[in-house]
Amino acid sequence: MAQIVQNTSLIIGACGQIGTELTLALRKAKGASKIIASDIREGGEQLMQSGPFEMVDATDYGAIEDTVIHQDVSEIYLMAAMLSATAEKFPEKAWSLNMKSLLNILNLGKEGKIKKIFWPSSIAVFGPNSPKENTPQQAIMDPTTVYGISKLAGERWCSYYHQKYGVDIRSLRYPGLLSWKTAPGGGTTDYAIEMYHRAVSNGRYSCFLDKDSRLPMMYMDDAIQATLQLMKAPVENIKIRSAYNLAAMNFTPEELAASIKNHIPSFKVDYAPDFRQQIADSWPSSMDDQAARKDWGWAPKFDLVRTTKEMLANIS
């Protein structure tokens, strides 16, 4: 009798901003029993009640290996990370978490214990000398943040493990992500989520970025769709093993405020840039994602108009 292969997925960092929505989307697509959520803390009610959960530390190789063996895990989504603004406050802690967790997973792949890995990169890999507009797939990368440095190093490790050991690792350079379902996680682009929430709750917002800070952004549904699409793509279609540029829209805080005012005319915004302004200034204002479109058919569905409508309706 042929052996039945259980195609079980483990999401590490499942309680975070992206991890929560990715877990729920995977459970809907593949069946709840095949998607194991894990984190160092419990998540929201919907996540915890929708399928299996295990307490796992992303930096503990033994704990991850045990889960992989006992649950017949064949693929891992590593979503645990310390994000840009938070990482600047705890640089060594951020480096340790972001690097150790990735190397743990890559080594499981190298040893043949898992078949496929997803690890998110970010626009933070680019820096002040990268082209700002329509930043190409291959460009100068000189990140100025701990988060960006760890993502650039991570991309090189991913490429290395694929070339040297044949590990099937896949990655996307996420832009700023917009979601109404989970709280912001300490990222520089989180001003946009805060702005939507303040618009609904009290009609005022003090923005920590300048009104003209243009950044690449994406509605969370598009980001989740891109992740699932990349992981489903045939192995021969994945030509880039560092990380694919991913794009949907770009806007400034002032343009976002204007979009919100179309629904809430009385909304007021003032601008008080803080240390996060310097981070935003080093990042691209728009991205060229032609490689993702060509290799595995990527195409976004949400623009700013549709995103604002969805965000405000759901927050309300």
Oligomer: single chain
What is the average of the pLDDT values?
Answer: 95
Number of helices: 12
Going across the biggest sheet, name each strand in turn.
3-2-1-4-5-7
Short description:
With 316 residues, this protein is α/β, with parallel strands linked by helices. Helix content is 42%, strand content 16%.
Molecular structure report:
It is a single chain. With 316 residues, the chain is α/β, with parallel strands linked by helices. The protein has two domains: 195 residues, NAD(P)-binding Rossmann-like Domain (Rossmann fold), CATH 3.40.50.720; 96 residues, UDP-galactose 4-epimerase, domain 1 (Alpha-Beta Complex), CATH 3.90.25. The chain is 42% helix and 16% strand. It contains twelve helices and 14 strands. The strands form four sheets. It has a six-stranded parallel sheet with strand order 3-2-1-4-5-7, sandwiched between helices. Strands 6-8-12 form a three-stranded parallel sheet. Strands 9-11-13 form a three-stranded mixed sheet. Helix 1 links the parallel strand 1 and strand 2. Helix 5 runs parallel beside helix 6 and helix 7 packs parallel to helix 9. The protein is globular and about 55 Å long. 47% of the residues are buried. The N terminus is likely disordered.
